[in-house]
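Researcher: I'd like a structural prediction for the single chain below. Treat it as a standalone chain; there are no partners to consider.
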Amino acid sequence: MEVVIFSTVSLDGRIASKTGDSKLSCEHDLRLLHKWRCWADVVLVGARTAMIDNPGLFVKRYPCQRQPFRGIIDGSFSVPYNLRLFEEMPWLSLIITSWEGIEANQWKYKYLISKGVRVLIADDNKRMSMKKVILRLNEFGIRKILVEGGGSVNWSLIKDDVVNNLEITYVGKVLGSGIQVINGEGFSTIQEAPSFVPENIRLCKCGKCVHISWRRSF
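Model: Treating it as a single chain, here is the predicted structure.
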């Protein structure tokens, strides 16, 4: 299994301003993102990102022979039933959730199943273990996972140490406050935090941002 987080961030590590403005990417960075989407078997976001941005997660800016699965990690099964992901090519959409989430939203479960959406149950509790989420995706046949945030799901994946690569584009902006790319309670010590080493550093063609590929180091 290969788990990659792709994110475009400000110099102070934020993916959106305090008002939610997240338009940080240039066209070259968007093409790189879509190249990674084409690489993936599934493109994932968290529930909050799905509700705020309502993304389609299609490959559009890079030539690709097929569309990957597009999914949401949502242990509470709280996302609306009429998101773009469930309306546009629902047979390529999936939601990873818990038994607790299903039991609280049985009507939504039945509706999404009727639309052709794949509902994968990864854990009993709505506070799902990301290791169980990755295992369930592996059982479904997924081998290459691209995660596009947001900050909370990124933290959960880092905390449970299931991330192989970080693909981060740093934009020459300082936002001061807003949504952090990794947004959680954090580690108590430096020793606890997983280490990543830079594999590739390149200046974007726009001349205003830098992309760094980080690989998990043990």
